Amino acid sequence: MKKPILAVALSALLAAQAGFAAAEDVKVGTIMGITGPLANFIPPILNAAKLAEADVNAGGGILGGGNFELVVADGQAAAQPSVDAATKLVNLENVAAVMGALSSGATIAAANAVTIPNGVLQVSPTATSPSMTDMDDGDFLYRIVPSDNYQGEVLAKIVLDEGIDRVAVAYVNNDYGVGIAGTFKENFEKLGGTITGYEKHEDKKNSYRGELATLANGDPQALVLIAYAGGSGAKIVKQSLEAGLFDRFIGTDGLRDDLLIEQVGPEALATSFFSAPTSPAENPAGEALHTRFDEVYGEGSDKPFVDQSYDATMLIALAIEKAGTTDRTAIKDALRFVANAPGEIVGPGEWKKAVKLLAEGKDINYEGAAGSHEFDENGDVAGFIGKFVVDGDSYKQVAIFE
């Protein structure tokens, strides 16, 4: 009688060990601009990614119960540091995929030098440069915000709707600035507006007074400034005000930074407005995520790109779960299957539901806090652009364009 009992016990032990062995820990790289011009944006963006990480692990883990771990590297929102960060993540940390980078230049540099050649899926929550659309990326590069081709078009319409038909344009000389400045100029002029001055600038100068004096010629009604507040943006606004050259500013997402309000004061920005990628107005999934976010971190759910950071991290996790492996090509191939319709809808915080559906062989369609993420053949998505104004010590959304 003892031998059958022993055999049964041994079989149970081996089955348990096999189940344990099947669980695979997974590392995903996260390239953040912890230092550099986007540093002020980072804490809530990183917290959002960490919340997605926590949701996966609290929901039973990944690939049979393994731990889902984000490995964070500082890309400084610059090209070479982001290449270095991606190299460390891909070659030393052996991550399964990469979430980030944030700025367009950093994302493109890391993709061209590291993730594409190594066949690693890279999903940016924030990179908007139009040049990403036609990159030869082998389908390894994605983003979940609309291209600046769309933001530039929307911004042109917003400016003209404000009764402003003569503007000067100052833009930072990088992928982000060049891309959106070009699309804004094209659409603004097409709609009947006049560009009185159009100047690019470098990001780390101490003075922009010469460029601003030139841009003030031609009687512009406002300065359209496409730059990061933590780089050239806040300096240009301050120097414009100090010299009496411009008193109304129109910015894009890089300028929609609390740092700008802190440095120049809300009164100086009372007539200014800003465009930025945003989330749908009526979205219970987003509202629920914001409530949980503020419960965990105290505040910050209203900051830029919180929704997109959570969604990008969750989409990568879902792609890994769908693939059933950490094989990098299989993960890339699985992304559209968890992001695009058709499929049963799952949302933020519904990791257990998603895992169950995938285990049953069913299709899922992740509908995120930032809306649907239906990737086209280029890894681009449609989306939403918001119009923001300064409201006290923060920004208030006053319109959404889909």
UniProtKB/TrEMBL annotation:
Domain Leucine-binding protein, residue spans: 26-337
Pfam families: Peripla_BP_6 (PF13458)
Keywords, ordered alphabetically: Amino-acid transport, Receptor, Signal, Transport
Stretch forming the signal peptide: 1-23
GO process annotations (BP): amino acid transport
Lineage: superkingdom: Bacteria
InterPro entries (alphabetical): BCAA_transport, Leu-bd, Leu_Ile_Val-bd, Peripla_BP_I
CDD domains (alphabetical): PBP1_ABC_ligand_binding-like
Record family assignment: Belongs to the leucine-binding protein family.
Record-given protein name: Putative metabotropic glutamate receptor mgl-1
